[in-house]
Design goal:
219 residues; alpha/beta; 6-stranded parallel β-sheet; 8 helices; 6 strands; 43% helix
Length: 219
Amino acid sequence: TFADDTLTLGFARRIATYKRLFLLTYDHERVRRMFADGPPLQIVVAGKAHPLDDNAKQMLVDVFGLSRSAGITSRVAFLENYDLSVAPPIVGGCDVWLNVPRPPLEASGTSGMKSAANGGLNLSVLDGWGVEGYDGENGWEIDGDAPDGEDEAGQDARHANALYDLLEQQVIPLFSDRDADGIPRRWLAMVKRSLRTNGPRFSAARMVEEYASRIYPPA
């Protein structure tokens, strides 16, 4: 059973190969240590793969194969039939939203925007909206630029290790850092900064205002 006071990661979106869900299980032993041996950690995965996208479906199989083999099934949840009724409690209930697409294939990344508007913090490969939204203090970033000559396998290894490093060295310690009243002050400061910087900028209100002021009058 999931606990409401435990650091909760979220990965919920269309399950396509370029979204790279497989990075979450890239290094099985390291992932097992994080979930089984470290401070309490849990993850919610939700999404749908295209019926003909066998690679995407295999990514889901691998996630739950790892959770069973590592004995961490109580820390990993997959919600089926991901739709508009399932999305709100996920984006509102996860502390950290994981965005690890293969650059430059992310067109936008609206799930991360919704998480930010609900007080979640984004841990992102900088692609899509993350390039504009990340300011160095409102979440965590993985460099999306590829060194010359780097192939996809090399990029996957680099990004997976960067993901684990951030979780182990920054995200988990920050969430666990509590004052005498049990309140994670530094975590909440980052949440407030994310709300101030990303909330107004990536909202339907801002979008409609810009359409009205920049596009329709000149037309």
